[in-house]
Amino acid sequence: MEKIDHLKKVSLLLEVESQTTPLEFIFGIGPEGLSPLEFELAEKKEGDTLALPLSGAEIPETFQHLMIPALSSLEGRESFVLKIRVDSVSPADQKEVVKAMAEIASCGDHCCAH
């Protein structure tokens, strides 16, 4: 079973209060290095779970380039627990890496939720 590491395609299931959101991304290609979320996920493997206590104000910093629109509704929350399940980890092919890097680069200094 593959572990999460640089240039792996990672599929997660995020859950807050019974609402789930999938997230798929290429690990380790952020313009500022690993995001805090990626640090938490490093070396995890398929089936692993974790629970992150967060506040809404911490979402942009925690996710950085991985920001997803479904979490924007939580930005005003004082605190919540984000449950994360690693659904799959696989090698990313070169086209996926290039596409993901281009999407990140097109955001500039903000995240536009690719």
Q: How would you describe what is shown here?
A:
With 114 residues, the chain is α+β, with helices and mostly antiparallel strands. It has one domain (8-106): Chitinase A, domain 3 (Roll). It is 21% helix and 31% strand. It has three helices and four strands; from the N terminus they run E-E-H-E-H-E-H. A four-stranded antiparallel β-sheet has the order 2-1-4-3. The longest helix is centred in the C-terminal third of the chain and has 13 residues, at 94-106. The radius of gyration is 13 Å and the shape is globular. The N and C termini lie far apart (28 Å).
In short:
The protein has 114 residues and is of the alpha+beta class.
Shape: globular
CATH class reads Alpha Beta
**CATH architecture classification:** Roll
Compute the number of helices. 3
Helix content: 10-25%
Number of separate domains = 1
Beta-strand portion reads 25-35%
Alpha-beta content class: alpha+beta
CA-atom Rg in angstroms:
13 Å
Biggest sheet layout: 4 strands, antiparallel
Describe the structure using short key phrases.
114 residues, alpha+beta, Chitinase A, domain 3, 4-stranded antiparallel β-sheet, 3 helices
SSE order and pairing:
Layout: E1 8-16, E2 19-26, H1 36-41, E3 49-54, H2 59-63, E4 80-91, H3 94-106
Antiparallel strand pairs: 1-2, 1-4, 3-4
